[in-house]
Amino acid sequence: MTVKSLVWFALGIAGGFIAAHLVNKDPRGQELFAQLDARIGEFTDRMSDAYHAQETRLSDMIDDAKGLAASTADHTTAAVSHAADAMGDAAAAAKKTLSS
Questions:
Q1: How far apart are CA 9 and CA 61, in angstroms?
Q2: CA 89 distance to own-chain centroid
Q3: pLDDT tens digits, one per residue of 15-35
Q4: What DSSP character marks residue 85?
Q5: What is the DSSP letter of 62?
Q6: Burial 32-53 (b: 16+ CB within 10 A, else e)
Q7: Cβ atoms of residues 58 and 50 within 8 Å
Q8: Can you tell me the distance from the alpha carbon of 79 to that of 48, in angstroms, rounded to the nearest whole number?
Q9: CA-based Rg of the chain, rounded to a whole angstrom?
Q10: What pTM was computed for the model?
Q11: Is pLDDT at 1 greater than 70 in this prediction?
Q12: Inter-axis angle of helices 27-99 and 2-25, to 10 degrees?
């Protein structure tokens, strides 16, 4: 069953090439292929533009996320530093109170 399907597939491809060759010999066929080529070119241009727009959008989102992560890390580091300073001050005050 598989070999039979492959043979029909190959015959279909060959038939398509032969038909395209015969149509391309006629000026109307050449015009048809030129229109088809223009439409395919327009479609691929639109797809390319959409792809690049989406790529830019995702890149901007990633950059924003990186900036937010860096900002959060900076704030966390500052908060930990302030907490450590406060604990050190409290420990010094407790020592001073106990010494007196």
A1: 46
A2: 50
A3: 999 999 998 899 998 999 999
A4: H
A5: H
A6: eeeeeeeeeeeeeeeeeeeeee
A7: no
A8: 46
A9: 36
A10: 0.51
A11: no
A12: 120
Residue 66: alpha-carbon gap to chain centroid: 16
Residues 6+ apart with CB under 8 A from 29: 22, 23
Residue in this structure with the two tokens 């398509």, named with its chain if needed: 16
Note the pLDDT of residue 86. 82
Token pair belonging to 84: 């450590």
Amino acid found at 29: G
Q: Which two tokens stand for residue 35?
A: 């229109």
Place of tokens 């390319």: 48
- Average pLDDT of the segment spanning 69-92: 82
In this structure, which amino acid lies at residue 4?
K
